[in-house]
TrEMBL record, chain A:
One family name in Pfam for this protein: Oxidored_q3
Function (record text): NDH-1 shuttles electrons from NADH, via FMN and iron-sulfur (Fe-S) centers, to quinones in the respiratory chain. Couples the redox reaction to proton translocation (for every two electrons transferred, four hydrogen ions are translocated across the cytoplasmic membrane), and thus conserves the redox energy in a proton gradient.
Organism field: Chondromyces apiculatus DSM 436
Family: Belongs to the complex I subunit 6 family.
Lineage: Bacteria, Pseudomonadati, Myxococcota, Polyangia, Polyangiales
Gene Ontology molecular function, alphabetical: NADH dehydrogenase (ubiquinone) activity; quinone binding
Protein name, UniProt field: NADH-quinone oxidoreductase subunit J
Any one of the GO CC terms: plasma membrane
PANTHER family according to UniProt: NADH-UBIQUINONE OXIDOREDUCTASE CHAIN 6 (PTHR33269:SF17)
Main localisation: membrane
Swiss-Prot/TrEMBL catalytic activity: a quinone + NADH + 5 H(+)(in) = a quinol + NAD(+) + 4 H(+)(out)
Membrane spanning residue stretches: 6-25, 32-50, 56-78, 99-119, 139-164
Keyword terms of this UniProt record: Cell membrane, Membrane, NAD, Quinone, Transmembrane, Transmembrane helix, Ubiquinone
Lineage top rank: taxon: Bacteria
From TrEMBL, chain B:
EC class (word): translocase
Reactions listed under catalytic activity: a quinone + NADH + 5 H(+)(in) = a quinol + NAD(+) + 4 H(+)(out)
Protein name: NADH-quinone oxidoreductase subunit K
Membrane topology: Multi-pass membrane protein
Pfam families hit by this protein: Oxidored_q2 (PF00420)
HAMAP family, A to Z: NDH1_NuoK (MF_01456)
UniProt entry tagged with the keyword Protease: no
A molecular function (GO) term: NADH dehydrogenase (quinone) (non-electrogenic) activity
TrEMBL record, chain C:
Native source organism of the sequence: Chondromyces apiculatus DSM 436
InterPro entries: NADHpl_OxRdtase_5_subgr, ND/Mrp_TM, NU5C-like, Proton_antipo_N
Assigned keywords, A-Z: Membrane, Transmembrane, Transmembrane helix, Ubiquinone
Disordered as annotated region, ranges: 521-545, 800-851
Gene Ontology MF annotations: NADH dehydrogenase (ubiquinone) activity; NADH dehydrogenase activity
Protein's name according to its UniProt entry: NADH-ubiquinone oxidoreductase chain L
Length: 202, 103, 851
């Protein structure tokens, strides 16, 4: 059992770390999104090992099913322009910064491990921890108010996202002919896309 | 389910967080930036769940994670909407072109 | 009448509120909504306000008791502390006695007539509503001035009329000249107001009240000496040696009453245009003519006389202050009269005449004849308003063709108007007779004669008190003032009739009269503001027949002319027809006790009228000969014979130039110095250097403001790294628990925790070699022993820090608590661990700092 557990852990961790790396390092955002998907699936696996079955399911549903798909939609909506060109500025300061951050992080890790009494094996999780029943009981008793507020937040986010993404719309009642207005709008959008496509191809 | 020490999870979370942070600092593509933020949020989530595992009397860490996921979903939707609006204005995905407020 | 007395009891006479509120309401409505009301509405509002106020004033006057007064207190304004620590309340309170009641009638009555006149005179002015708002506001302020029950309320009105005067002088602010005249009036009045404020402070200090009643009854407390030099604690001890010449052998003192009197008179000299502050009044003629009539002739400028009369109880205590008032009045009367002799501007003549007449009023109050001085205020209000309005009527007629302000007021452009403007001419003539002092009929005769008679006979008894010495009037002073007044009267009648003959007699010199002349589309510019878009040369233009002014302008003229005659019979004391004088008697009952008639003058009342009558005849006949019979030829001859003297008088003795060179010059020089300081110190060092410094930091900081989100995020990360570095750096520190020190000699040290720390405790003799996770350490001390304990802290990266604590146990027996089994020492109050009561600090530890 032990070896399987370790193997599962390392597999999941590999997914997470490699996925994170691809997310950050790939030039093509589609690949980045795929890396993100991999990291998310890996983390879901780790949740399973940490007695958080319900969260693992939520992770897959919300992140993999909704967020990553949303990213993909946007990438596809933007088409080739979603890919930014190569950064033309000097790379040195940026990698220097990354190095500093990395060194500081490694230092912090060392510190944390030296402060703890050393890796200890975990005791068995109590029955019902992280299951839908156990989690749900607590969610709907102790955390019911934040839960409702989270619902309101999501509603606001939906409305806000729609409002922002739609952009400025001409009030059809003010326009001379309502039919023309729509046509003009879509024409404008098409014009934008064509000009941009031309840019990329040229 | 107990042979993997908690520190291992924390190391994975730290590595993931640093990856996200470096990505956020170095990349210029708005979409990648948003993804980096998602990575960092996930790293934090993993830490929360891991610590919840060694204090198993309640589900506080997991519940917190649950809310972080909800907020992250909201953030992703609004963030992507802003990216689209920005694209409509500047016809680019590069974050350093977002400088209209700079005189 | 009785019903009214019940309705308005004397101690709560609320009708005064209506008298005050109506003009205030008029000002408010006309000022805020005048433009929307339209000219008819504004006229109705202004006239109704003043008319209502006038009717209420008449009613008030009728209800006036023979003695005492009607008062109304609105609310307690402030309460200040006097020198004895007593509370001095200052109320918004108003009261009316015979003095202020008469003033009130003049203000509202003449004010109403002038409002009526203005409604026609200003008809075509775009600032019509503004004009009436100011005028109503002025009436409100003037009523506050005369009705105020205490000096503070009087001062409020005093400043209010000053403001209105400023606004109305500069009413046509489009021209620099007018704005400058307004400014001049305001600034000169400020000098006077300073005096009045000082006087108020002195009265509060010495008398302890600002109420007129209280000042009158408590005036005797002003009979003490005020040290005016050296000031403060200036003495040979506090002054450097070379300044010792400043210290007199005896302190210079002055009678408090004299100080108050002189300071009040400084205020009065400013407001009532006396030497040396008279210079603003002639310039004030830049305002519209009705304003000159109301404010700068009939009412506001007499406020100074009113104030001296009101404070008569203070002035009679100080013969010296009275002498200053009287002499200043006499000098002003003479000086202004001489200037008036050669002025060509009709309004300027009247302005200097006003200054001169104000001088007569001050002669009156200065010789202690307060009632006589006030009579002249009363009669002067009618005839001078009539003269100004007549001048306005003439200017109105001339303005049809000559639009330039200066030239339309120049008597060189008038002449022969008696044929075209009969009403104006007759009223002007009557007013001239009144001011020049036509015996019996002219009201000025009675009032001026009374003043001069009182000056001739005055003998002021010095009220004395222990420890004060009073300056006494020399016996010749009264007579000198009398003859100065008579000389002034000659000039007065001369220049008044000069203006009359040059305006109404002879040939018309304004333009060539063409009865068929039609206005070429210009419209009748009935206002006298100078938009000189017609550059016609003198005498070369043609124009219509000069016309008489319409009824709203002539009715006030006729009423005022009637009063110019009739008012004399209210004050004609020599023939014992003086109802006003009887009414005023109680007001001045107290102060008139110090004034008596000089011995040996009893039978001279009628003989001493003769010089006055002679002065009238000399001036009038002289003017008639010079300007009627000989067409002004003698004046021109005088000008060629004594060109420099003529020029000097024509230039008003160049007093303005003198002030420009001295006072204004000094202020300018001071301003220049301050300009330099401002430019180099304030601007150069304070402003520019500061700005440069801020700009420099801005430039530096701007480099960080790249506008890229990631740079900001990187800065945040750097900051976090810095904070993290501080958190994990080893910091050796420990809290000391010495609760058991006195009992067992044990001290417990607890090291402060930190991420990844390990600790080592070194005590003398015992030295650990390894770092451990234990944070607690206990040291045992013998009585009187001292030990150094060093705490070493190492963090995860092996960097170390240390701190040494010196622990001392006091020698035994101090509190007898060192032996086991002894009674426990009184417990110190329970304190959080680590805090040490101040008394025990020497017993314990002093950190020796990081090593």
């Amino acid at each position: 059992m032990k070896i399987f557990e370790l193997a599962f852990f390392f597999l999941a961790s590999l997914l997470v770390v490699l996925g994170g790396f691809f997310t950050v390092a790939s030039r093509n955002p589609i690949r980045g999104a795929m890396g993100l998907l991999s990291a998310i699936v890996g983390i879901a696996g780790l949740y399973l090992m940490l007695a958080a079955e319900f969260l693992a399911a939520i992770q897959i549903l919300v992140y993999a099913g909704a967020v990553v798909v949303l990213f993909l939609f946007v990438i596809m909506l933007l088409g080739p322009s979603a890919t930014s060109g190569r950064d033309t500025r000097s790379a040195l300061p940026r990698y220097l910064g990354a190095g500093v951050l990395l060194a500081a992080s490694v230092g912090a890790l060392v510190l944390v491990f030296s402060a703890s009494a050393g890796p200890r094996a975990l005791s068995a999780a109590p029955t019902g921890m992280g299951t839908v029943e156990g989690f749900g009981r607590e969610l709907f008793t102790q955390a019911v108010v934040p839960f409702e507020i989270a619902g309101v937040l999501l509603l606001i986010a939906v409305v806000g996202a729609v409002a922002v993404a739609r952009g400025k719309q001409v009030d059809p009642t003010l326009a001379p002919a309502p039919g023309d207005d729509d046509k003009q709008g879509s024409d404008a959008a098409r014009a934008v896309l064509t000009t941009h496509t031309k840019d990329v191809h040229s | 389910m107990s042979s993997v020490p908690i520190e291992y999870y924390l190391v994975v979370a730290a590595v993931l967080f640093i990856t996200g942070a470096i990505g956020f600092l170095l990349r210029r593509n708005l979409l990648i930036l948003l993804m980096s933020i998602e990575l960092m949020l996930n790293a934090v989530n993993l830490t929360l769940v891991a610590y919840n595992r060694i204090h198993p009397l309640n589900h506080n860490g997991q519940i917190f994670t649950f809310f972080v996921i909800a907020v992250a979903a909201a953030e992703a939707s609004v963030g992507l909407a802003i990216v689209l609006a920005f694209y409509r204005v500047r016809r680019t995905m590069r974050s350093d072109e977002a400088d209209l407020l700079r005189s | 009448m009785e019903a009214l007395r019940t309705l308005f009891p004397a101690s709560d006479f609320t009708l005064l509120a209506a008298i005050l509120a109506l003009p205030a309401l008029g000002a408010l409505v006309n000022g805020l909504f005048g433009k929307r009301l339209g000219k008819e509405g504004v006229r109705l509002m202004a006239l109704a306000a003043l008319g209502g106020s006038f009717l209420a004033s008449v009613l008030t006057y009728l209800l006036l008791p023979a003695e005492g007064k009607l008062t109304w207190t609105a609310w307690r304004w402030i309460s200040i502390q006097g020198r004895m620590g007593q509370s001095i309340p200052i109320d918004v309170a108003f009261s009316v006695d015979a003095l202020s009641g008469t003033m009130m009638l003049v203000i509202t009555g003449v004010g109403f007539l002038i409002h009526l006149y203005s409604s026609e005179y200003m008809k075509n002015d775009p600032g019509f509503h503004r004009f009436f708002a100011y005028l109503n506001l002025f009436c409100f302020a003037m009523l506050t001035l005369v009705m105020g029950d205490n000096l503070a309320m009087l001062f409020v009105g005093w400043e209010g009329v000053g403001l209105c005067s400023y606004l109305l002088i500069g009413f046509w602010y489009g021209e620099d000249k007018n704005a400058a005249a307004g400014k001049k009036a305001f600034i000169v009045n400020r000098i006077g107001d300073f005096g009045l404020l000082v006087a108020m402070a002195l009265i509060v200090y010495y008398v302890g009240t600002l109420r007129f009643d209280g000042i009158q009854s408590g005036a005797s407390s002003l009979l003490q000496n005020v040290k005016i030099w050296p000031i403060g604690n200036m003495s040979s001890g506090t002054l450097p040696g070379f300044l010792h010449f400043l210290l007199p052998e005896q302190p210079v003192t002055i009678l408090a009453a004299t100080a108050v009197g002189l300071m009040v008179f400084l205020g009065c000299a400013g407001k009532s245009a006396q030497i040396p502050l008279y210079i603003w009044l002639p310039d004030a003629m830049a305002g519209p003519t009705p304003v000159s009539a109301l404010i700068h002739a009939a009412t506001m400028v007499t406020a100074g006389v009113y104030l001296v009369a009101r404070l008569s109880a203070v002035f009679v205590l100080s013969p010296a202050a009275l002498a200053v008032v009287a002499v200043t009045g006499a000098l002003t009367a003479l000086l202004a009269a001489t200037i008036g002799l050669f002025q060509n501007d009709l309004k300027k003549v009247l302005a200097y005449s006003t200054v001169s007449q104000l001088g007569y009023m001050f002669i009156g109050v200065g010789v202690g004849a307060f009632a006589a001085g006030f009579f002249h205020v009363f009669t002067h209000a009618f005839f001078k308003a009539c003269l100004f309005l007549g001048a306005g009527s003439v200017i109105h007629a001339i303005h049809v063709r000559i639009h330039d302000t200066d030239r339309s007021q120049d008597m060189g452009n008038m002449g022969g108007l008696k044929a075209y403007m009969p009403i104006t001419r007759w009223t002007y003539l009557i007013a001239c007779f009144a001011i020049a002092g036509l015996p019996i009929l002219g009201s000025g005769f009675w009032s001026k004669d009374e003043i001069l008679w009182k000056a001739f006979t005055v003998d002021i008894m010095a009220v004395s008190a222990p420890g004060v010495s009073q300056w006494m009037w020399p016996s010749w002073l009264g007579r000198a003032i009398y003859w100065a007044g008579v000389t002034g009267a000659v000039f007065t009648s001369f220049y008044m009739f000069r203006s009359y003959f040059r305006t109404f007699h002879g040939e018309f010199r304004g333009w060539k009269i063409d009865p068929t002349w039609k206005d070429p589309g210009h419209g009748h510019g009935h206002d006298d503001h100078g938009h000189d878009d017609h550059h016609e040369e003198h005498g070369e233009i043609t124009g219509p027949v000069p016309h008489e002014s319409p009824l709203p302008m002539t009715i006030p003229l006729m009423v005022l002319a009637a009063f110019s005659i009739g008012a004399g019979f209210l004050v004609a004391e020599p023939i014992h027809v003086a109802p006003l004088a009887h009414k005023l008697e109680p007001v001045f009952a107290l102060s008139s006790r110090a004034i008596r008639q000089r011995e040996g003058t009893e039978g001279l009342l009628f003989p001493m009228m003769l010089p006055g009558i002679a002065a009238f005849l000399a001036g009038t006949v002289g003017a008639m000969v010079v300007y009627q019979n000989r067409r002004g030829e003698p004046e021109r001859r005088f000008a060629t014979m004594f060109p420099r003297l003529h020029r000097l008088i024509y230039d008003k003795w160049r007093i303005d130039e003198l002030y420009d060179a001295t006072v204004v010059g000094m202020v300018d020089a001071l301003a220049d110095i301050f300009t330099i300081a401002d430019k180099w110190i304030v601007d150069g060092i304070l402003a520019k250097f500061t700005a440069a410094l801020v700009g420099f930091f801005g430039t530096v900081l701007r480099a960080f403001q790249t506008g890229r989100v990631q740079v900001y995020a990187a800065a945040m990360v750097l900051g976090l790294v810095g904070v993290g570095w501080f958190m994990v750096k080893p910091h050796a520190d420990a809290t000391v628990n010495d609760e058991a020190l006195r009992r067992s000699g044990e001290v417990k040290l607890s090291a402060a925790p930190g991420l990844g720390y390990s600790y080592r405790w070194d005590t003398p003799g015992v030295s650990e070699t390894t770092f451990a996770k234990t944070t607690e350490h206990t040291v045992k001390l013998d009585p009187g022993e001292t030990k150094d304990v060093t705490l070493r802290v190492r963090n995860a990266w092996g960097s170390e820090s240390s701190e040494t604590f010196t622990l001392t146990r006091p020698a035994g027996g101090r509190r007898g608590a060192t032996e086991p089994g002894a009674l426990p020492a009184p417990q110190p109050p329970t304190l959080p661990t680590g805090t040490i009561p101040a008394e025990r600090i020497p017993d314990l530890i002093q950190p020796k700092g990081l090593q």
